Structure formats: C-alpha cells, structure tokens
Amino acid sequence: MSQSNLDTSTPNTWCPGCGNFAILNGIKKVLNELSEEDCPPEKFVLLSGIGCHGKIVDYVNVNSFYSIHGRSIPIAEGIKMANSGLKVICFAGDGDAYGEGLEHLIFAAKRNIDITVIIHNNRLYSLTAFQYSPTSELGFKGGSTPNGSMESPLNPLELMLASQATYLARGTSQGMNLLTRLFREAIMHKGFALVDVLQVCVTFNNLYEYYAKRVYELENHDPGDFQAAFNAIREWDYNSDSRIPLGVFYKKEAPTFDEKLISSPADLKRRDGKIRQFLSKRM
Amino acid sequence: MQDFSILIGGSAGSGVDKSALVLGDLLNQSGYRVYIYHDYPSLIRGGHTFSIIRAAQTKITAHRDRIDFLLGLNKETLDIHKTRLDDSGKVICDSEILKEAALPKQIRTLAIPAVKLVKEENAPEIMRNTCLIGAFAKAAGIKIELLEKVLRDNFTKSIDKNIKIAKKGYDASELMESISPPVHDILPLISGSQAMGLGLIKGGLEVYVSYPMTPTTALLHFLAEQANEFSLKVVHPENELSVILMALGFAYAGRKTAVGTSGGGFCLMTESLSLSAMSEVPTVIVLGQRPGPSTGLPTYSCQSDLHFALYAGQGEFVRFVVAPGDLEEAYYWSASALNLAWKYQIPSIILTDKNLNEGISNFDVNDTGEIKENDPYLWDGTTGYRRYEDNKTGISPLAFVPDKNAVIKVSGYEHDESGITTEDAVVTKKMQDKRLRKEKHLAEELKSFPTVKTYGNEEQTTALLCWGSAKGICVEIAQKLGLKVIQPIVLSPFPEHAFREAIRGIKKLIAVENNATGQLVRLIKAHGIDVDDTILKYDGRPFTLDELEKIVKEKIA
Ligand SMILES: Cc1ncc(C[n+]2csc(CCOP(=O)(O)OP(=O)(O)O)c2C)c(N)n1
Ligand code: SF4
Q: Element (H or E) spanning B330, and its range?
C-alpha cells in the first residue's frame, strides 16, 4: 500500500509550521509500515478529542471516531474491549487529556488496557485561542491568565507512571526519526502506552528553539527499571529550564484489561430458553 | 383471606429485604399473586427499614397502608406501624419486645421467644427473622412442608440452620387465621430490574456498562451475576462520563450495549447523549428516577425526570423515550428500546423509577406481547461506503470495524456523508435534515406498537391519566371505581394520534403523577391537550391504594 492511500482530500487547516504535521506524517508512516507487515489498515481505529489536534482524524483515511473534548479515551477503551484484535490509537491535546478528561487517562493506565495514547502537548490551549494548560509553566500569560498562571505544571509522565501505565515515552515534533520509532513501539506494545509529544504551536508559543537547546535522547537507560524511569521522568518538570530527556522511559509487560474481559460470543438462539430457565427458578 | 398485607420491619442489616422475599415466595407458592414494596433509608446498618408484602387474587403492583400482619424485628417497627393495623390486625414478634410495646388491647398478638430460640441454637442474630417467618407460617395455616421448600429455594448459605430456626418458630406459634389462597398457575416473582435485564438480554444485549447508583444498582448486579450465563460483558468504570463513552465505543464496534443510571449520573452523561445523536452511534440508557434536586432522597422514588429525559443534551435530535409501567412492559420495552436504538441509530432512554426497579411482583413472560425483531440497516458492500449516506429515511448503512472494504468514520463534529468535518452551510443543513428525518419514520413504525394503553371501563367519560410505575395502582382503583385509565408509554416521539384516540369521549381527565409540577400534564399540553385535574405526590413514596382511592373519590364526587 502506498502512502497516498492514507490521505484524504480534506484540506489541512493547521497553521504552516505547526508541530501537528510531524505527528500526522509520523503516524501515516507507521501505519503504512505496519500495514505492509501484518496489520491491515482496517484494523486501526483512530480517535481524537477537540482542539487543533483533533483534526488529525480527518487527515488520515482509516477508521476513526472524532469525539468530544477530553473524552476520547473511554471510547477507545470500549472499542478495544469490543474487539481486542483492533489497534486503537487516541490523539489527544494536553488540555484535552491532562485537563478536561484526566480521570479517564489515569483509569485507562490503571487498567493497563491495550490502547495507544499520543498527546499533542503544545503546553497550551490553542483552538480556543491561547490559554494556559495543565503543562504550561508557572506564570504563563494567556487569555485567561493575563498576569501569569498561578499554578505549577503537572508532570504527566510522572502521573502516568504512578497510575501503572506500562509504556511511557516522550518525543518532539522536531525529531521525526525518534517520533516514528516511538509511535511504532507504542502501537506494538501490549498494554497501555502513552507518548507525550512536545508539539510546537508556532502561532501561540513557538518553542522550537527552546526545545532544540535542551532536548537529548536517553542513553544507557533501562526502561524496565522503575526507579530509573522515575528518575529520568523527573529530570524535567515541565517548568524549569533543565535538560529535557526524550525516548522510552518505561516499559513493562503485564496482563491487559481487554484480554481479561474476553467472553464467549453470545448465542442469541439459546437465549429464550435460558430466560425461561431463569424464570422457572423464581417460582 | 382474599387480599391481605404483611409488614415486616427492623433496622437496616437485620435481613428485612430477604425476609420479605421469603414471605412473598411463601404466598406466591401458596397460589396468591404478590407485590413487595421495600422502604429503606440510605444507610447500611441501623435506621428503620420495612417491606410490605401484599397478596391478592389477581395481579397487583401496588400496596396498601392498612396491614393485616405486623412482623416486628424491633420495638421501633411496632411503634411506627401499629396505626396501620385495624381491629382484625395481628402482631407477631419477640416476647420481650412485645412486653415493652404498648399496643391497643383489641390487636391480637403472638409472642414468640425468638431471641431465646436463636440463642439456644447458637445461630446468628439475623436468623430471628427466619424464626418469625416460621411463626407467621403456622399463624396463617401454611403447611410446614411448603415452608421448608421455600426456605430451601431462597437460601444458599446455612440452609439447614435456617430451616431448624424456622421450625422452632413454627412450633412456638399457633393458628391465627387460615389463608385461603386461590388456585393459580404459579408465576415467577421478580423485580423490575430483573425484568429490564431480561428484556435487554432478549433484545440482543451484549454489553452492559454502569456505575452504581440507586435505583439501577440492582440491575448492574443482576447483569454482572448473569454475565457468564448470557455471554455478556459487564463493565463498571470510573464514572458515568466513562460509562456512556465506553458504551459508544462498544456500539461503534458493533456491540449492542446498554447503560444504567439515575438522574445524577444522567447529568454527567448528557454531553455524550448528544454525541450519540450526532455520531449516530446508538445508545440505550436505563434512567431510574429518584427524588431530586441533587442527591434528593437516594433510596426513594419519583417521576420528576421526564422533561430532563426529553430535553437533555445540546442541540436538536431524535430520541426514543419510553416509560414502562410494570414488569411485562419493562421486559417488552427494554428489548424494543434496544432494537429501535439500533434500527434508527439514535439514543433510547428507558425511563423507570425506584418503585418499578425495586418493586417485586409476578411476571408472565407469555403476556409481554410479541417482541418485533428489528434488524439494523447494514451496509451491503455494493457501493462505496459512506457512514452518513443521505437517503429517504435518513437511516444510513451501518458497517463495523474491521471491514476491509469500508473506512468507517464517525464524528461528533458536523460532518459530511463520509464522516469528514464540515462547516459548510449547505452541508450542515442537509445533514441536520437527514438526522431529523429519522423521527418521522420512527413515529410511523411506532404506530404498530402499544404506545398508549387504556384500561378499565372504556365507556366511561372520566379517566385517570398516568405514566410509568403509577400505572398499576391507577388500574386497580379504576377497576374498583369503574373509571378508565390512559397510560402513554412512549413519550418521545410523542404518539399524539394514539393519545387522541385514547382520550376520545373523555370529559374529565385526571392526571396522577409522582412529581410536584405535573410533568406529563405539561407534555400533553404542548400537544394541545389539557387535563381537568391533577393528583400529585412527591414525598418520595409511591401512592398507596387507600390514599389514592380516597383522593380520586373526592375528585370525581
Ligand atoms: C466541554 C467542552 N469545554 C470546552 C470546549 C472548548 N474547547 C475546545 S478545544 C479546547 C482546548 C483545546 O486545548 P488542547 O486540548 O490542548 O488542544 P489543542 O487545541 O491545543 O490541540 C477547549 C477548551 C469544548 N469543546 N468542550
Ligand atoms: S494554533 Fe498552534 S496548534 Fe493550532 S494549528 Fe496553529 S500552530 Fe498548530
């Protein structure tokens, strides 16, 4: 299958230079590669919330569910529980997944349900025209906080580690090679996987240079070591100007919720008899 | 005795519910038709809880204030409920408790040394109720063999101990008044929640998702317990937002799914109710009403969420709302609501309440009416797939992931026929028209369903108008007073034609509702129909026969 088969004719409305393009190109590349291997495109379902990131499902010609702000994850879980043979990928904004729908993220991780979550983390709300988000730095001046936000950011990866996620990684919209590798690994990981992508919003908060100066790829890091993962995740708190590690922080094999939930298909023909049987016991 | 009631009461945790089931079963197996009403506060231990078990010759779904037997597990029960006894009333209770209670002289009492008997057997305190059940059986002239059988049927743990204690109670008791049950085929005794669960199963349910909330918790427990038997997936996620979202995910992947909640949980679901309508991914919501606003009275009942069910969710969209009034209707309409949600790709709401969900009565599976098999409109694979194809009915073809010939794109954003986002004015109007068009076809199909029922004297010009769980009591009173009853069951799309047929010739229409503002009254007014009078009750308790009969008599005098 050629790459163009995944394109739709929908005009792209992201700002030129937006980091979302990197995520879009990365995911198309990975989907193409995987469909050439053993995973045909119809087995993928993409989901998104609402925000600039949400438009991504319109730009990829595979099954999708364009959901509502903060709520794509439980829908993804439902799809996966319905059919564990599917590959279910959620695209979410930082406002979307770390703010509006945070509880779902924590519980999906806790269940270790086999879905992939890719966060377009531009560290602000872009579609609603520039407000601070759960990962904006303290003092962030946005439309709702003209004098600077009064809250320190959340470290979402630390939160996800505590919530028992089994694959945690960070990439940026500048580093395509790493990004596609992480996407591929996250999708192939059996269990709950989250990739936090530092996606640059050129229009409201152009951090290309800021990140370029600070990011580095983890080396000699053992993702199977919880303590090492914890330390690496805490190197940058989304607030300070420290170095920013990229790559896979944590990876662990564990039973998934969807495989535990498997039930035999319902035999609808035998139901009437079973209903009567139930009732006869109540006489 | 043709029609009599037993009240058993005690503190929460003393086994009142279970005892009521056993007593109900005892009378059911004797040949009566039975109705059980549970009244309990929202706590796990202490407080006062009671159940009324009413036995009659014909099917009933209402209880009386007046009782014939009072079984008290503590003194409080006697104090609170003694006024329900008339001169022929009988009290069965522990000897010590009876000594302390100042009961009127004319009331016949039976003192059973229940505390002592249970202690002698080294049995747990909770078995005092089994002891009183044994005493009741003797007092009512019920054979010991039947008592033993019923106990065996109802207990899974400590069966022999329970039987032993019950026999002690039986032996310590004496005949007070022999019951004279009618000869009937025995019908199963189940709760409204069980009838709904079985109805959903009958309709093809594959998945149930719910977060516990009275009065639908028992439905969650029931389906979880039956999950293996019927190959269901039953999931209890983090909150109701997640409940309905997961359900949408399951349904998108082709699984017939239902959710259950009460008003508070439904508040959290409304954003996704609207998503269901826009994405045309079917959902079925069992909405069990309880008094509000807010937490209200968690374990009591009312009918105050009709307009919430009719209008919840942003935007304008087609929904199916149905309010069954008894077990047979709960079964029939739960199956039908699931089928219709899938055929029309819309949200369906089964509007119930605590009375219907937790009330227990006889269920006749042969008397539910034929449930129509209504297959969803599936894509035939011949032309290119468009999830939201615009056509004459507005019902677009369904396909489910994975399908190698179809890309299935659904969306809560306005979208074109392929499911791609649009903000174009022409497409927006066209797609809204497509979705709304489904209502006309749904309404047309519903003409072959019993959307409005009438009972009682068809010639009468005075009718009681009711909906949901108020049906049973209205029918019983109407039969007694020679009135007609009109019960709209489908509330959206409102079956105006059938309703107008039902009220033809009626001069006086009296609405009976368990709410403070007359919600059905407002709904029919919107269709240009006025009621002449209303009887409203909104203290969390259902109408009782004695109470409603008196009010109706005044209204028609
Ligand atoms: C319930 C609800 N609240 C608010 C909004 C408005 N809204 C749309 S997108 C958005 C925030 C977007 O931020 P983020 O999730 O970070 O996505 P981005 O636009 O940055 O990609 C908000 C608040 C909404 N659609 N729904
Ligand atoms: S506003 Fe920012 S995030 Fe949104 S499209 Fe433009 S650059 Fe991208």
A: helix B327-344
